[in-house]
Design a protein that fits this description.
The protein is mainly α and 189 residues long. It has one domain (24-185). Helix content is 59%, strand content 0%. It has helices at residues 10-40, 48-60, 72-76, 82-103, 108-130, 141-153, 167-171. Helix 1 crosses helix 5 and helix 4 (82-103) runs antiparallel to helix 5. The longest helix has 31 residues, at 10-40. 22% of the residues are buried. The chain binds zinc ion (2 copies). One zinc ion binds at residues 57, 61, 126, 130, 150, 154.
């Protein structure tokens, strides 16, 4: 049964939902990696994510000074469309409603908070990478590290596929640091 109002103590309900948020952030790193590698950088059906990301975003933003947006055309191609977010949230809503139904665990609300927050983090961080300002955290070492991580991806399209949480890049062996950059690995798709 769906467990929106489960007959369990409130604290176990809270532990389950908060645990789901953390679990989704781990899942989010691998889901982001797969989406980026196999849909946004593969001539997959539907083809529009490949065209919008691999052909347009990567053509406008390269690993050099063009990594920072300076034209209207670049500004137009920084972010996902709103319907990409609606689609991803709806897919996960169905997936995690099914998981809650099957397991009986109260996780759906936590899972959807996790999915929505990961997507918001993706859009915000990726936007700030390409459209920097004077935000207080942009000079922090961790943010500069993450920004450089993504800039390397714009040089080597099958490396550093994570934007938010590079866990999957480390686990799956696609993390590249500036010291091991090899120009010949650069690809266009
Ligand atoms: Zn980018
Ligand atoms: Zn990419």
């Amino acid at each position: 049964m769906p467990t929106l109002f489960p007959e369990i103590p409130w604290y176990w309900y809270l532990v389950s939902q908060v645990g789901a948020i953390f679990a989704i952030w781990i899942y989010g790193s691998f889901a982001e990696w797969c989406l980026h590698r196999f849909i946004m950088h593969s001539k997959f059906i539907p083809r529009f994510p490949f065209e919008k990301h691999a052909l347009i975003h990567h053509k406008l933003f390269r690993g050099d000074e063009s990594f920072t947006a300076s034209t209207d055309e670049q500004m137009h191609h920084v972010s996902f469309n709103w319907y990409d977010h609606v689609t991803l949230n709806l897919i996960h809503l169905g997936l995690f409603a099914g998981l809650e139904y099957v397991t009986g665990l109260p996780i759906l609300i936590g899972c959807m908070i996790g999915v929505a927050s990961y997507l918001i983090a993706y859009e915000s961080i990726h936007y700030i990478f390409h459209v920097p300002g004077n935000r207080f955290f942009e000079k922090h070492r961790w943010f500069e590290w993450l920004r450089e991580h993504h800039q390397i991806h714009h040089k080597q399209h099958f490396r550093n596929l994570n934007v938010v949480l590079p866990l999957a890049d480390f686990v799956l062996g696609t993390r590249r640091s500036p010291s091991v950059l090899v120009d010949s690995e650069s690809t266009s798709a």
